[in-house]
Write a structure and sequence with these properties.
Pfam families: ABC_tran. Keywords: ATP-binding, Cell cycle, Cell division, Cell membrane, Membrane, Nucleotide-binding. It is a peripheral membrane protein. Belongs to the ABC transporter superfamily. Part of the ABC transporter FtsEX involved in cellular division. The protein has about 230 residues and is α/β, with parallel strands linked by helices. About 30% of the residues lie in helices and about 25% in strands. The protein has seven helices and ten strands. The strands form two sheets. The protein has a six-stranded mixed β-sheet with strand order 6-7-8-3-9-10, with helices on both faces. The chain has a four-stranded antiparallel β-sheet with strand order 2-1-4-5, covered by helices on one side. Helix 3 packs across helix 4 and helix 5 runs parallel beside helix 6. The radius of gyration is 17 Å and the shape is globular. The model has no long low-confidence stretch (mean pLDDT about 90).
Length: about 230
Protein backbone atom coordinates (compact mmCIF):
# COMPACT_ATOMS: atom_id res chain seq x y z
CA UNK A 1 0.00 0.00 0.00
CA UNK A 2 2.80 2.41 0.95
CA UNK A 3 6.25 1.87 -0.55
CA UNK A 4 9.29 4.13 -0.31
CA UNK A 5 12.42 3.27 -2.25
CA UNK A 6 15.72 5.01 -1.49
CA UNK A 7 13.95 8.22 -0.50
CA UNK A 8 16.07 11.28 0.27
CA UNK A 9 14.76 14.67 1.37
CA UNK A 10 17.26 17.50 1.65
CA UNK A 11 16.32 21.10 2.41
CA UNK A 12 17.85 24.13 0.64
CA UNK A 13 20.05 24.84 3.66
CA UNK A 14 21.74 21.49 3.10
CA UNK A 15 20.09 19.70 6.01
CA UNK A 16 19.20 16.11 5.14
CA UNK A 17 15.89 15.30 6.84
CA UNK A 18 15.51 11.88 5.16
CA UNK A 19 18.67 10.07 4.14
CA UNK A 20 17.87 7.20 1.80
CA UNK A 21 15.10 5.15 3.41
CA UNK A 22 13.20 2.21 1.93
CA UNK A 23 9.99 1.02 3.55
CA UNK A 24 6.86 -0.99 2.80
CA UNK A 25 3.59 -0.88 4.74
CA UNK A 26 0.80 -3.29 3.84
CA UNK A 27 -2.87 -2.43 3.63
CA UNK A 28 -4.52 -2.70 7.04
CA UNK A 29 -1.33 -2.44 9.11
CA UNK A 30 -1.01 -0.45 12.33
CA UNK A 31 2.46 1.08 12.50
CA UNK A 32 4.21 3.28 15.05
CA UNK A 33 6.97 5.59 13.86
CA UNK A 34 9.24 6.59 16.74
CA UNK A 35 12.40 8.60 17.16
CA UNK A 36 13.85 11.73 18.71
CA UNK A 37 13.04 15.22 17.47
CA UNK A 38 14.83 15.79 14.17
CA UNK A 39 14.85 12.11 13.27
CA UNK A 40 12.73 12.68 10.13
CA UNK A 41 9.34 11.43 11.36
CA UNK A 42 7.35 14.55 10.53
CA UNK A 43 9.13 14.94 7.20
CA UNK A 44 8.05 11.40 6.33
CA UNK A 45 4.42 12.30 7.08
CA UNK A 46 4.68 15.43 4.90
CA UNK A 47 6.12 13.37 2.04
CA UNK A 48 3.19 10.94 2.26
CA UNK A 49 0.76 13.88 2.22
CA UNK A 50 2.65 15.31 -0.75
CA UNK A 51 3.26 18.53 1.15
CA UNK A 52 6.93 17.94 0.35
CA UNK A 53 8.64 16.39 -2.67
CA UNK A 54 11.50 13.90 -2.26
CA UNK A 55 14.91 15.02 -3.42
CA UNK A 56 15.61 11.48 -4.60
CA UNK A 57 13.82 8.13 -4.66
CA UNK A 58 10.23 7.08 -5.25
CA UNK A 59 7.05 6.97 -3.14
CA UNK A 60 4.01 4.88 -4.07
CA UNK A 61 0.69 4.96 -2.25
CA UNK A 62 -2.11 2.67 -3.39
CA UNK A 63 -0.07 1.92 -6.49
CA UNK A 64 0.18 5.59 -7.43
CA UNK A 65 3.64 7.05 -7.97
CA UNK A 66 3.55 10.34 -6.06
CA UNK A 67 6.63 11.69 -7.84
CA UNK A 68 4.64 11.91 -11.08
CA UNK A 69 1.34 13.10 -9.63
CA UNK A 70 0.11 16.30 -11.26
CA UNK A 71 -0.64 19.22 -8.96
CA UNK A 72 -4.32 19.23 -9.91
CA UNK A 73 -4.68 15.64 -8.66
CA UNK A 74 -3.25 16.26 -5.19
CA UNK A 75 -6.56 17.32 -3.52
CA UNK A 76 -8.27 14.15 -4.75
CA UNK A 77 -5.37 12.04 -3.49
CA UNK A 78 -5.49 13.66 -0.05
CA UNK A 79 -9.18 12.88 0.34
CA UNK A 80 -8.20 9.25 0.87
CA UNK A 81 -5.81 10.16 3.67
CA UNK A 82 -7.10 11.19 7.08
CA UNK A 83 -4.89 13.27 9.38
CA UNK A 84 -4.90 14.08 13.08
CA UNK A 85 -2.36 16.22 14.88
CA UNK A 86 -1.20 17.06 18.39
CA UNK A 87 -2.90 20.47 18.31
CA UNK A 88 -6.27 19.16 17.02
CA UNK A 89 -6.67 21.98 14.41
CA UNK A 90 -10.40 22.38 14.96
CA UNK A 91 -12.39 25.39 13.71
CA UNK A 92 -12.99 27.32 16.92
CA UNK A 93 -16.03 29.23 15.61
CA UNK A 94 -17.91 26.06 14.57
CA UNK A 95 -19.54 23.42 16.72
CA UNK A 96 -18.64 19.72 16.75
CA UNK A 97 -21.11 18.81 14.02
CA UNK A 98 -19.90 21.58 11.70
CA UNK A 99 -16.23 20.75 12.32
CA UNK A 100 -16.80 17.21 11.08
CA UNK A 101 -19.20 18.25 8.33
CA UNK A 102 -16.61 20.73 7.00
CA UNK A 103 -14.47 17.86 5.69
CA UNK A 104 -17.40 16.74 3.57
CA UNK A 105 -18.54 20.18 2.48
CA UNK A 106 -15.14 20.94 0.92
CA UNK A 107 -15.56 17.97 -1.42
CA UNK A 108 -19.17 18.94 -2.16
CA UNK A 109 -20.80 15.94 -0.51
CA UNK A 110 -24.61 16.15 -0.80
CA UNK A 111 -26.29 17.51 2.35
CA UNK A 112 -28.33 14.32 2.67
CA UNK A 113 -25.14 12.29 2.88
CA UNK A 114 -23.56 14.70 5.37
CA UNK A 115 -26.58 14.40 7.66
CA UNK A 116 -26.09 10.64 7.66
CA UNK A 117 -22.30 10.46 7.81
CA UNK A 118 -21.51 13.03 10.50
CA UNK A 119 -23.72 11.52 13.26
CA UNK A 120 -22.32 8.08 12.41
CA UNK A 121 -18.75 9.31 12.89
CA UNK A 122 -19.59 11.15 16.11
CA UNK A 123 -21.18 7.98 17.42
CA UNK A 124 -18.06 6.01 16.51
CA UNK A 125 -15.84 8.32 18.56
CA UNK A 126 -18.30 8.53 21.46
CA UNK A 127 -19.43 12.13 20.98
CA UNK A 128 -22.97 11.74 19.64
CA UNK A 129 -24.36 13.87 22.48
CA UNK A 130 -21.82 16.67 22.02
CA UNK A 131 -22.67 17.64 18.45
CA UNK A 132 -23.76 21.17 19.41
CA UNK A 133 -20.71 21.89 21.59
CA UNK A 134 -17.89 24.19 20.52
CA UNK A 135 -14.21 23.23 20.86
CA UNK A 136 -13.73 25.54 23.86
CA UNK A 137 -16.39 23.55 25.72
CA UNK A 138 -14.59 20.24 25.24
CA UNK A 139 -11.72 18.53 27.03
CA UNK A 140 -8.50 17.82 25.15
CA UNK A 141 -9.50 14.20 24.68
CA UNK A 142 -12.89 15.19 23.31
CA UNK A 143 -11.29 17.64 20.89
CA UNK A 144 -9.00 14.89 19.62
CA UNK A 145 -12.05 12.66 19.13
CA UNK A 146 -13.65 15.37 17.02
CA UNK A 147 -10.44 15.60 14.99
CA UNK A 148 -10.57 11.83 14.48
CA UNK A 149 -14.20 11.96 13.38
CA UNK A 150 -13.33 14.69 10.88
CA UNK A 151 -10.37 12.67 9.58
CA UNK A 152 -12.53 9.57 9.12
CA UNK A 153 -15.74 11.00 7.72
CA UNK A 154 -14.55 10.70 4.11
CA UNK A 155 -13.66 7.01 4.60
CA UNK A 156 -9.89 7.34 4.08
CA UNK A 157 -7.72 4.36 3.17
CA UNK A 158 -4.96 5.67 5.44
CA UNK A 159 -4.98 7.55 8.75
CA UNK A 160 -1.84 9.53 9.63
CA UNK A 161 -1.64 10.56 13.27
CA UNK A 162 1.21 12.92 14.17
CA UNK A 163 1.68 12.89 17.97
CA UNK A 164 -2.10 12.43 18.52
CA UNK A 165 -1.68 12.05 22.30
CA UNK A 166 1.00 14.69 22.80
CA UNK A 167 -1.26 17.10 24.72
CA UNK A 168 -3.29 14.48 26.60
CA UNK A 169 -3.03 12.84 30.01
CA UNK A 170 -2.12 9.12 30.19
CA UNK A 171 -5.70 7.87 30.69
CA UNK A 172 -7.06 9.92 27.79
CA UNK A 173 -4.08 8.90 25.65
CA UNK A 174 -4.95 5.23 26.18
CA UNK A 175 -8.56 5.92 25.20
CA UNK A 176 -7.48 7.62 21.97
CA UNK A 177 -5.14 4.76 21.11
CA UNK A 178 -7.91 2.22 21.76
CA UNK A 179 -10.06 4.18 19.34
CA UNK A 180 -7.27 4.09 16.75
CA UNK A 181 -7.11 0.32 17.20
CA UNK A 182 -10.85 0.08 16.55
CA UNK A 183 -10.48 2.21 13.43
CA UNK A 184 -7.65 -0.05 12.25
CA UNK A 185 -9.80 -3.13 12.90
CA UNK A 186 -12.35 -1.68 10.47
CA UNK A 187 -9.74 -1.84 7.72
CA UNK A 188 -8.04 1.56 7.78
CA UNK A 189 -4.24 1.55 7.60
CA UNK A 190 -2.95 3.55 10.59
CA UNK A 191 0.44 5.27 10.98
CA UNK A 192 1.14 6.90 14.33
CA UNK A 193 4.11 9.18 14.98
CA UNK A 194 4.70 9.33 18.73
CA UNK A 195 7.15 9.91 21.56
CA UNK A 196 4.92 8.01 24.00
CA UNK A 197 6.99 4.93 24.74
CA UNK A 198 4.48 3.53 27.24
CA UNK A 199 1.71 3.39 24.64
CA UNK A 200 4.01 1.81 22.07
CA UNK A 201 5.09 -0.85 24.53
CA UNK A 202 1.50 -1.55 25.59
CA UNK A 203 -0.01 -1.92 22.12
CA UNK A 204 2.82 -4.00 20.67
CA UNK A 205 2.25 -3.13 17.03
CA UNK A 206 4.86 -2.81 14.32
CA UNK A 207 7.46 -0.21 15.29
CA UNK A 208 9.67 1.69 12.85
CA UNK A 209 12.48 3.55 14.60
CA UNK A 210 14.14 6.55 12.96
CA UNK A 211 17.29 8.45 13.82
CA UNK A 212 18.92 11.26 11.85
CA UNK A 213 16.83 10.55 8.77
CA UNK A 214 17.40 6.81 8.54
CA UNK A 215 15.49 3.75 9.74
CA UNK A 216 17.43 2.13 12.57
CA UNK A 217 14.88 -0.52 13.50
CA UNK A 218 11.74 -2.21 12.19
CA UNK A 219 10.10 -4.68 14.55
CA UNK A 220 6.76 -6.27 13.75
CA UNK A 221 4.40 -6.50 16.72
CA UNK A 222 7.27 -6.60 19.19
CA UNK A 223 6.79 -3.29 20.95
CA UNK A 224 9.49 -0.68 21.41
CA UNK A 225 11.92 -1.04 24.26
CA UNK A 226 13.53 2.34 24.74
Amino acid sequence: MITLENVVKSYPNGVGAINGISLHIDRGEFVFIVGDSGSGKSTLIKLLLKELEPTEGTIRVNGVLLNRMKKRNIPKYRRKIGCVFQDFRLLKDRNVYENVAFAQRVIVTPTKEIKKNVPAMLSLVGLAEKYKSFPRQLSGGEQQRVALARALVNSPDILLADEPTGNLDPKTSREIMKLLEEINARGTTVLVVTHDQDIVNTLKKRVIRMQKGIITGDEKESGYIG
